[in-house]
Amino acid sequence: QVQLVESGGGLVQVGGSLRLSCAASGSIQSISAGNWYRQAPGKQRELVAGISSGGTTHYAESAKGRFTISRDNARNMVYLQMNDLLPEDTAVYYCNALLGMYDYWGQGTQVTVSS
Q: 42-49: which pairs have CB atoms within 8 A and are 24 or more residues apart?
């Protein structure tokens, strides 16, 4: 059974940093494209950052200059480095990845930024 497992969330003060990790397990397929989404209370889930199979990255305007998405193909993992965190970054962050022909989601990890 293929699973995506996020880790690295937590409580951090404004201006702090967190690094989220997403690990794919139970699959012989490699992550081709990976994305990070987030959903704040009362809001729709939104795309934060994505990385293609070729390593091309894209970011939401709110994440540009502060967040960096990366991948480790050998470990079949995707990361999201988040710096200069703001209260509005508070949300549940979800990993989304394409493995083979199928799209998978993790269970989410809570990020809370206190002011």
A: 43/91, 45/94, 48/80, 48/93, 49/80
